[in-house]
Amino acid sequence: MKKILVTGGCGYLGAHTLVDLIENGFDVISADNNSRSNESILDAVEKITGKKIKNYKINLCIYDDTVAIFQENPDLVGIIHFAAYKSVSESVKKPLLYFENNLNSLINILKCADVFSVSNFIFSSSCTVYGNPDSIPVTEETSMKLAQSAYGATKQMGEQIVSDAVNSNNNLAILLRYFNPVGAHPSGLMGELPLGKPENLVPAITQTAVGKLPVMKLWGNDYDTRDGSCVRDYIHVCDIAHAHTLALNYLLQNKNETNCDVFNLGTGDGLTVLEIINEFEKTSGVKLNYEIGPRRPGDVIAIYANNDKAKKMLGWNPVFNLQDMMSTAWKWELKIKADEKNI
What pTM, to 2 d.p., does this model score? Predict the structure, then answer.
């Protein structure tokens, strides 16, 4: 079995990708210091797949600790790098924290990939690299605008670092630009688990609906969009996860045409925040208590993907629709509530 290192494996995207990799015949290990995640999610991965995952609880910003993972696993054939801080609003307030953590960890992983000859690398990027684009949908050729947050800037810089690294040592990389991952595993055993007050839309919706939050804030309703709220491309987390497996196989089968390629991962549909709220209310049968707040610094007005390249070259086709996104997220939130009652 081909062994893959998944950094940030205890995170939302990382854990779902562990499941998809295992279900497609890969052996996996995780590296996650749990500063922004909970190691208990690996219990859910084990329940779903029957495989126990080894997690290296280390800080990837410390090079010697990072090296130890590679020394213990000389049979690694690929790396999927999720580990990063990801809050747009926090990055606006604490930019140096984001530059230090997100870039140093990436550099250390790439150094180790070079030293230990792990030639297949997948980087967790983001649609934030496009900034406020001149036109939508965006393609992989759309020019990058000024990042609207330090988080977005670390993704722009990260892409450049990965590209330069693999072109210098003839390794291979794929940059996956996610749009807005939402939903949860259909089993209901795992999903997004924000630490503290959620900043992403769907956890804020479900926590408000279940009564954990008294009211949800909608950040701005005066944008130049069809209903005044921001437009995003929401994509189910399991569709995102499967794209990593396809991208890995793409590299392992030497289908790549360049040392570093890039793919958008989105549905291709732009939906407003209010439309998401309406779909949740319809799917769950729960009326959401929300109020309008001011615009939030760092938020892009509108963006959604052209995903033709990923469909054509990776053979990737999203299979979960908006109702699936809302129903699985709600199922997960209800499980959290039930578990808390039983504690």
Answer: 0.96
Rounded to 5°, angle at Cα 78 from 73 and 80: 110
pLDDT tens for 162-204 read: 999 999 999 999 999 999 999 999 999 999 998 888 989 999 9
Tell me the backbone φ, ψ of residue 21, rounded to 5 degrees: -65, -45
Among 12, 85, 130, 151, the active-site one is: 151
User: Catalytic residue at 290?
Assistant: no
Please name the residue ranges forming H helices in 285-321.
308-309
Task: Report CA-CA distances (Å) from 20 to 59, 178, 244.
Answer: 25, 17, 8
Cα separation, 237 vs 226, in Å, equals 26
Between CA 65 and CA 150 the distance in angstroms is 26
From start to end of the chain, where are the E strands? 3-7, 27-31, 55-56, 76-81, 120-126, 172-178, 180-182, 216-219, 231-232, 234-236, 260-265, 271-272, 290-293
